[in-house]
Automatic annotation (TrEMBL):
InterPro entries: GIY-YIG_endonuc, GIY-YIG_endonuc_sf, GIY-YIG_UvrC_Cho, RuvA_2-like, UVR_dom, UVR_dom_sf, UvrABC_protein_C, UvrC. This is UvrABC system protein C. PROSITE patterns: GIY_YIG, UVR, UVRC. Residues 204-239 form the UVR domain. Residues 16-94 form the GIY-YIG domain. Interacts with UvrB in an incision complex. The gene is uvrC. It holds the Pfam family UvrC_RNaseH.
Length: 606
C-alpha cells in the first residue's frame, strides 16, 4: 500500500450506504472497480482484519487513493460498476477478451417480399430479429435450412430490385423467385410467417396448420402444392427429431456454466431459443482478484448488461448478488429475467451440457497453452534467445499490381494472437509494386511509435520476405536506435509449400532451415499466415472501397446521402456510369447541373 494513502483516515469517513468504489494507483491508473451493499464494511475488509489472497494483497499494495460513489440502490451500483469497468478495463477486475456482438437472423417483415439475412449490430432497424446465435456458422446454417423449406430470398435489396430473370438460387430450389413475381406477395408472406413460426419454436403448431393446408390442396387437385407442403412437414419433423432435448420447451434460455482448473477458467453458454438448441460458445475470462463465485457474478454482469438477456438464465453455482442482477436485467429488458441455479429435468440437462462444454474448453485451453509454451521454448533455442519470447510481431505487404498497397502488423504473446494490438498501414508515396519501400514505410511508422513509448518493444520481429525485406527492417531499427530485437525474414521454399520456409537472419549469408515437425517452425508459420491474412483483408477492403466509391466522392456537391441514393437507384457504380445526364437528373436530390458534373467526372478519360 502506498505510504501516501492513509487507510484509517479514509475508512473513518466512508459511508455505509450502497455504492461503487475505485482503487487508484500512484500513476492514476484505475486498478479495480467494485460495488458494495455497505461501502464501509466492504472497503474495511481490504485494509483491516484477516490476510487476503495473494492477488488482492498485490492490488492493495499499489493503491494510492480510493474514490467512492454512493448510489440510491444496489441495482444502481451494479449498473455503475458495469459502466466503469467497461470504460477503464481495470487489470484486477474480471475481463472478457471477446467483446464482439453475436450474430442474429434478420427478417425484413416490413417489405412486400421480406428478405432473410445474417445480421450483426444494433437491432433498431424495422423488422424481426431472431437469436442471438453462438456463431456465424450456426446463423448461416439456419438461413440455409429456412431457404430449403420456405424458399425465402437472401439477396440484398439492390440485387433484388435490378433482376430481370431469376438467379441461381431459384434454379437450385432455394428461392421462389419473388424478384420477377413468380410468386404472389400473399403466398410469399405465408411462407415468411411459417418460417417465423419455426424460429419462434412453434413447430408443432405449424405442422398441424400445414397438414390442414395439404389436405385442402389435395381436395382442390393442387398436387404440386400439396407435395411442397408435405416436404415442409417432413423437414420440420426432422428438425424436431434432432432437437429431442428441447422439443417440449418454448422459452428463451441460456445455460451458463463455469469450470476452473487452477488459473484457467472457462465459461460456456448453451443458447436455447424458441425450444431449439442453437449451440454453445466458450469464454475464458481473466479473473483479476475474483474467486470462483465472484468470477461467475462478474462475468454475468459484464456479459448480459451489454447484450439482450433471455427470459431465464441457468447457472451451475449460486452467486451472491443474483437478486440484484435479476432486477437490473429485468428493468433493462422491460420484462422478467430470472437467474436460477437449482433446476431439474430438461433444464438440468442443458446446464450439464454447458458444464461439459466448459470442462472440454478448459482442457483444450490448457493443451493449447502447453503447445504454445513448447513452441516459444523451441523458438528460444532456434534463435539462441536468453528467454522464450514474450512478444512477437510480424509484417506483411499486400497489393494487386501495385494498387492500394496495405501493410499489416500482427502481434502474438504467450496466450496467442493479441488482436487489439494489430495494426494496418495504408502505404502511399512509393512506386507501384515497390515491396521494399512499402516495408520500410510500414516499419518506420510502427517503430517511430514504439520509440515514443506508444507500444511495447517486441522480442522477435518477423518479416514476410527474404534478404531484401530483412535489410529494410535492419536499417529501420538501426535508424531508431532500437536494439535487443531479433529480426528474421521468413521466405517460402522453392515450390512455396508449407514446411520448406527459409529463415534469413542478419549477418548470416545462408538461410536457416528448420525440420517440418519443428514446434518453432509451426509457430512461425502460424504468425506469418495470420499477418498474410490480415494484410490481404485490409487490401481487399481498401481496393473495393476505392473502386466503388472514390470516383463519386470526387464530385463537388455530391454528399454521402446522394451517393447512396445514386448507387441504390442504378444498382451500383457500373449502373451509374452507364446512365445519361437525363437519367441522373431524375434521381431525387440530383439537379441537372449536378448530373452534368457526375457525368463529366465518370467519363473524364473516355
Amino acid at each position: 500500500m502506498s505510504a501516501a494513502f492513509d487507510s484509517k483516515l479514509f475508512l473513518a469517513n466512508v459511508s455505509q450506504r450502497p455504492g461503487v468504489y475505485r482503487m487508484i494507483g500512484a500513476d492514476g491508473e484505475v486498478l479495480y472497480v467494485g460495488k458494495a451493499r455497505n461501502l464501509k464494511n466492504r472497503l474495511t475488509s481490504y485494509f483491516v482484519g484477516k490476510a487476503q489472497a495473494a492477488k488482492t494483497m498485490a492490488m492493495v499494495s499499489q493503491v494510492a487513493n480510493v474514490e467512492v460513489t454512493v448510489t440510491a440502490s444496489e441495482t444502481e451500483a451494479l449498473l455503475l460498476e458495469y459502466n466503469l469497468i467497461k470504460r477503464h478495463r481495470p487489470r484486477f477486475n474480471v475481463t472478457l477478451r471477446d467483446d464482439k456482438s453475436f450474430p442474429y437472423l434478420y427478417v425484413t417483415t416490413q417489405d412486400e417480399y421480406p428478405r432473410i439475412s445474417f445480421y450483426r449490430g444494433s437491432r433498431k432497424l424495422p423488422g424481426r430479429f431472431f437469436g442471438p446465435y453462438p456463431n456465424a456458422r450456426a446463423t448461416r446454417e439456419t438461413i440455409l435450412l429456412l431457404q430449403k423449406l420456405f424458399l425465402l430470398r437472401p439477396c440484398s435489396d439492390t440485387f433484388f430490385a435490378n433482376r430481370s430473370r431469376p438467379c441461381l438460387q431459384h434454379q437450385i430450389k432455394r428461392c421462389s423467385g419473388p424478384c420477377v413475381r413468380l410468386i404472389s406477395p400473399q403466398e410469399y408472406r405465408q411462407d415468411v410467417n411459417d418460417a417465423i413460426k419455426v424460429l419462434e419454436g412453434k413447430g408443432a403448431e405449424l405442422i398441424d396448420d400445414l397438414a390442414q393446408r395439404m389436405e385442402h390442396a389435395s381436395q382442390e387437385l393442387e398436387f404440386e402444392k400439396a407435395a411442397r407442403l408435405r416436404d415442409q412437414i417432413n423437414g420440420i419433423k426432422a428438425i424436431h427429431s434432432t432437437q429431442s432435448v428441447t422439443r417440449n420447451a418454448t422459452e428463451d434460455i441460456d445455460a451458463v456454466a463455469l469450470v476452473s482448473h487452477g488459473s484457467d477458467h472457462c465459461v460456456s453458454i448453451v443458447f436455447v431459443r424458441g425450444g431449439r438448441n442453437l449451440g454453445s460458445n466458450n469464454f475464458f475470462p481473466k479473473p483479476g482478484i475474483a474467486e470462483a463465485g465472484e468470477l461467475l457474478s462478474g462475468f454475468l454482469t459484464q456479459y448480459y448488461l451489454g447484450r439482450e438477456a433471455p427470459g431465464e438464465i441457468l447457472i451451475n453455482e449460486q452467486i451472491e448478488d443474483a437478486d440484484t442482477l435479476e432486477q437490473a436485467l429485468s428493468e433493462r429488458m422491460e420484462r422478467s429475467v430470472k437467474i436460477r441455479s437449482n433446476v431439474r429435468g430438461v433444464r438440468a440437462r442443458w446446464l450439464e451440457m454447458a458444464r461439459t462444454n466448459a470442462e472440454l474448453g478448459v482442457k483444450m485451453r490448457r493443451a493449447t497453452e502447453a503447445t504454445g509454451v513448447e513452441q516459444l521454448q523451441a523458438m528460444q533455442e532456434v534463435f539462441n534467445l536468453p528467454n522464450p519470447p514474450a512478444r512477437i510481431e510480424c509484417f506483411d505487404i499486400s497489393h494487386t499490381m501495385g494498387e492500394r498497397t496495405v501493410a499489416s502488423c500482427v502481434v502474438f504473446g504467450p496466450e496467442g494472437p493479441l488482436k487489439s494490438d494489430y495494426r494496418r498501414f495504408n502505404i502511399e508515396g512509393i512506386a507501384p509494386g515497390d515491396d521494399y519501400g512499402a516495408m520500410r514505410q510500414a516499419l518506420s511508422r510502427r517503430y517511430a511509435r514504439i520509440k515514443k513509448g506508444e507500444a511495447p518493444t517486441p522480442d522477435v520481429l518477423l518479416i514476410d520476405g527474404g534478404p531484401g525485406q530483412l535489410a529494410q527492417a535492419s536499417e529501420v531499427l538501426k535508424e531508431y536506435d532500437i536494439d535487443n530485437v531479433l529480426i528474421a525474414g521468413v521466405a517460402k521454399g522453392a515450390d512455396r509449400r508449407p514446411g520448406q520456409e527459409r529463415l534469413f537472419l542478419p549477418g548470416h549469408e545462408l538461410p536457416t532451415l528448420l525440420p517440418p515437425d519443428s514446434p518453432a517452425l509451426h509457430l512461425i508459420q502460424r504468425v506469418r499466415d495470420e499477418a498474410h491474412r490480415f494484410a490481404i483483408t485490409g487490401h481487399r477492403q481498401r481496393r473495393a472501397k476505392a473502386r466503388t466509391q472514390s470516383v463519386l466522392e470526387t464530385v463537388p456537391g455530391l454528399g454521402p446521402r446522394k451517393r447512396r441514393e445514386l448507387l441504390r437507384q442504378f444498382g451500383g457504380l457500373q449502373g451509374v456510369s452507364r446512365a445519361g445526364i437525363d437519367d441522373l437528373a431524375k434521381v431525387h436530390g440530383i439537379s441537372r447541373k449536378l448530373a452534368q458534373s457526375i457525368y463529366d467526372t465518370l467519363h473524364a478519360n473516355g
